[in-house]
Specification:
This protein is mainly α. It contains 22 helices and five strands. The chain has a five-stranded parallel β-sheet with strand order 2-3-4-1-5, with helices on one face. It binds zinc ion.
Length: 474
């Protein structure tokens, strides 16, 4: 017997088998139970989430010898013929390859033939948005006056390309991307039945890669089985999916968080030697940073992260070594570098320097310290006003000198251990001081991120205004 691909072999045969689409299967079941199945149904959703599968299940439920029923027997002739695609009452056409008005006329002509007694005539049109305007017009007339016991099931990934006049005559159901845990569950069921040994982490990796598509997940599993046989190791899954080794990835992230640029470079080099693509590596690193931010901000909501319990515990431990603000800034910095990566002649070098940038990103504490210093400066300057301006001694000198003496005096009163540059800055006249201030802010710039700079410049006008106000008063 020839090998049947998993997606076909494990195609759901009943509503109960369909993963993650209860919001569609429940109303369809109810429609069958109450005998209110409409003449036209539009199923929308991304590829591989079960649109044509649902159309076939619906057809079997209606035409099963024991039907209409919500659980087709799967054994009678109509059930078997529909599954095999040989039923004369159920026709499937792929609009992607048959888009012309003639194709639709042929279809419409076929509708006139009555179905077998007690059965429905069902037309499943896949990728219906590909039909031409003329074809849609021809179809519209039939939708306006559908023959008795007929059902159109339209499936599409692009509902916005279907004329409104057609959509408005259909009962519309939007299928969703299937959640990763639901894909994992289905894959686990399949591998159990197929007697294939594979780890939960590998199934998770496959499900994540499938990005919401059950069919893609099963196709990937097929590829892994073709490569590894029935004993599948994690490394083999990594090979087939071209996955970045999680160990290496975590080492890069850990080094960045620990500000160990050399360590981060070494881990990058290792990934490069394993033949990993720079773009792929940076995308995966970006996803990891996203997970770290999420786990740091919402440690009690593991469902926000598509990872196993062990992986989440690992992420949590790593995220706790720094703060969410710094992680977020690292994420943003990497997003920016990613734009360069797409066009760079030497993408791996760009990635390496991006990683160095992450590893040399200052702690959020540094930003906090700068702000605290600005705050202290502000307080000291406005504190002088509260005490009634410059002390009498200042009157004897020239204005700037008096101001600087007064400030120095205030500075030492309010904060005896004030650092040298604080005092120096406070003692200078206004224009110089604010220039100096700016210079100080920009000195830390190469390492600082955007928001660091923004924060510094945000508080700057205020500080220099206070300064200016005081200088003019004295
Ligand atoms: Zn049946």
């Amino acid at each position: 017997m020839s090998y049947q691909v998993l997606a076909r072999k494990w195609r759901p045969q009943t509503f109960d088998d369909v993963s993650g689409q209860a919001h569609v299967t429940t109303p369809l079941r109810n429609a069958i139970r109450t005998g209110r199945v409409p003449h036209a149904i539009l199923l929308t959703g991304p590829r591989g989430v079960g649109k044509t599968t649902l159309a076939r299940i619906l057809a079997r439920c209606l035409n099963c010898d024991k039907g209409p029923t919500v659980t087709a027997c799967g054994e009678c002739d109509p059930c078997r013929e529909i599954s095999a695609g040989t039923s004369t009452d159920v026709q499937e056409i792929d609009a992607a390859s048959r888009t012309s008005v003639d194709d639709v006329r042929e279809l419409i002509a076929a509708i006139r033939y009555a179905a077998a007694p007690g059965k429905h005539r069902i037309f499943v049109v896949d990728e219906v948005h590909m039909l031409s305007a003329a074809a849609f017009n021809a179809l519209l007339k039939t939708l306006e006056e559908p023959p008795a016991r007929s059902l159109f099931v339209f499936a599409t990934t692009n509902p916005e390309k279907i004329p409104f006049t057609v959509v408005s005559r259909c009962q519309r159901y939007d299928l969703r991307r299937i959640r990763t845990p639901e894909i994992v569950e289905r894959l686990a069921e399949i591998t159990r039945e197929e007697k294939i040994s594979v780890s939960g982490n590998s199934l998770l990796a496959i499900a994540r890669e499938a990005d919401g598509s059950m069919r893609d997940a099963q196709t990937l599993l097929d590829q892994v089985i073709a490569y590894a046989g029935s004993e599948i190791g994690d490394a083999q899954v990594n090979d087939v999916l071209d996955l970045v080794d999680r160990r290496v990835l975590l080492r890069i992230a850990t080094a960045c968080i620990e500000s160990d640029a050399a360590g981060a470079l070494a881990a990058c080099r290792e990934a490069g030697e394993a033949g990993l693509d720079a773009k792929r590596l940076s995308e995966t690193l970006l996803q990891l940073l996203r997970d770290l931010v999420v786990v740091r901000i919402a440690p009690e909501q593991p469902e926000l992260i598509e990872a196993s319990d062990d992986e989440i515990a690992e992420l949590r431990a790593l995220a706790e070594r720094t703060d969410a603000t710094r992680l977020r800034r690292m994420f943003r910095a990497l997003v920016k570098e990613q734009e360069d990566l797409a066009w760079a002649p030497a993408p791996f070098a760009v990635l390496e320097l991006a990683v160095v940038r992450l590893a040399t990103m200052p702690e959020a504490d540094d930003v906090g310290r700068v702000l605290a210093r600005l705050d202290a400066l502000e307080k000291r300057l406005s504190g002088g006003d509260a005490e009634g301006g410059a002390p009498p001694a200042a009157a004897s000198g020239s204005a700037p000198a008096a101001a600087s003496r007064a400030q120095r005096a205030q500075a030492s009163r309010s904060e005896p251990q004030a650092s040298e540059d604080h005092r120096a800055q406070a003692s200078r006249s206004e224009p110089q001081a604010s220039e100096d201030h700016r210079a100080q802010a920009s000195r830390s710039e190469p390492q600082a991120s955007e928001d660091h700079r923004a924060q510094a410049s945000r508080s700057e006008p205020q500080a220099s205004e206070v300064h200016r106000a005081q200088a003019s008063r004295s």
